[in-house]
Amino acid sequence: MKIENSIKTTPASPVGEALVSSARPGQRSAEIATPNEPGNTGDSVKLSTHLQSIEKNLATGEVFDAARVAEIKQAISEGRFVVNAGKVADGLLETVRDLIRTRQG
Question: pTM of this prediction?
Answer without folding.
Answer: 0.36
